[in-house]
Amino acid sequence: DYGPQAWEAYRDTDGDWNGGEVVHGDIADSHAVEQAISGVDCVIHTAVYFVGDPNDDKPFLINLKGLWNVLQAAQEQGIRKVVHIGSCQTVHPEGIFFSSEVRRPDGSLYAVCKRLQEEMCRQVHEAFGLPIVVLRPDYIVDSRLGIGKYREPLNIRNGFVCRHDLAEACRLALEKDEVKFDVLHVVGTPEADATCNTARGREVLGLEYKGNLDQYR
What are φ and ψ of residue 25, in 5° steps? Predict the structure, then answer.
C-alpha cells in the first residue's frame, strides 16, 4: 500500500487487515521495494494505476517502473516465485483464441501498460530464470457481495471472475513449483473456455472456480 488511505476504499466490505505485517511505500522507489520484500518467500504483484489525465506519469511509474523494481528485487534476493496479475480480454476482437502466446490487441494506455508488463515478465524469466506466472483476469467482481469493482450491481457477462477465485489462483500458482513460467487466463464464466486458455489454467493450477456467478445472470 502507498499509504494507510489505500485501504479505506473497501474497509466497509473487508474490515481491517489482520493477516500480517503491513508495509507502506512507493512501488516506484526501488529501495522501498527492496525493503518491503526482504525476507519473503514469494511475491504476488497486484499494483495497478488507472488514469484519465494524459499528463499523469504515474501509469508508467507504478505499472512499469514498479513492476521492474519488484522483478529486480526478487531476482537479486532469490525470491522463489512471482505471480503477476495481468489483464486481458476474454474474447479476441478478431476471433483468435487467446493462448499464452497471443497478446491483447487493444491500444489504450492501460492496455499498453499491461501488455508491456507481461513482456517484462517474459524477458526477466528468460534472462534470469526467475519463476513467474502471469494471470490474466478480465473483469474482477465479488460474487459474494454481488458487486463489481466500481460497486455496481452484477449483471453477469462473459469475462467475469470472482476476486476470491483469483486469489485462490494466485495461491495455487505459488505452490506449483514445477511451473516456472506461464501465462494463464483466469475467468469464471464457463463460456470463456471457447475463446481463451481458462481450461488450461484450471488444469495447470488445479483451480476450481467456486464463485457463483450464475445467480446474477
Answer: -175, 170
- Spell out the alpha helix ranges (H) of 45-153: 58, 66-77, 109-128
| 160 in any annotated domain | yes
Residue 121 sits in a domain of what CATH number? 3.40.50.720
Neighbouring residues of 68: CB distance < 8 A, sequence distance ≥ 6: 120
Average pLDDT, the chain: 95
Measured distance CA(131)–CA(147) in Å, rounded? 33
What is the spatial distance between Cα 92 and Cα 176, in angstroms, rounded to a whole number? 28
**96 inside domain:** yes
Condensed to tens digits (0 to 9), the pLDDT of residues 166-192 reads 999 999 999 999 999 999 999 999 999
| The three cell numbers locating residue 176 | 506449483
Return phi, psi of residue 141, to 5°: -130, 180
Q: How many CA atoms lie within 13 A of 83 on its CB side?
A: 25
CA distance 93 to 124: 29
**DSSP-derived 3-state class of residue 153:** strand
DSSP symbol at 185:
E
How far is 131 from 181, CA to CA, in rounded Å?
6
Distance CA 209, CA 206 (A): 10
Work out how many domains the chain is built from and give that number. Answer: 1
- The terminus-to-terminus CA distance of the chain in angstroms comes to 34
Bridge partner list, 85: 135
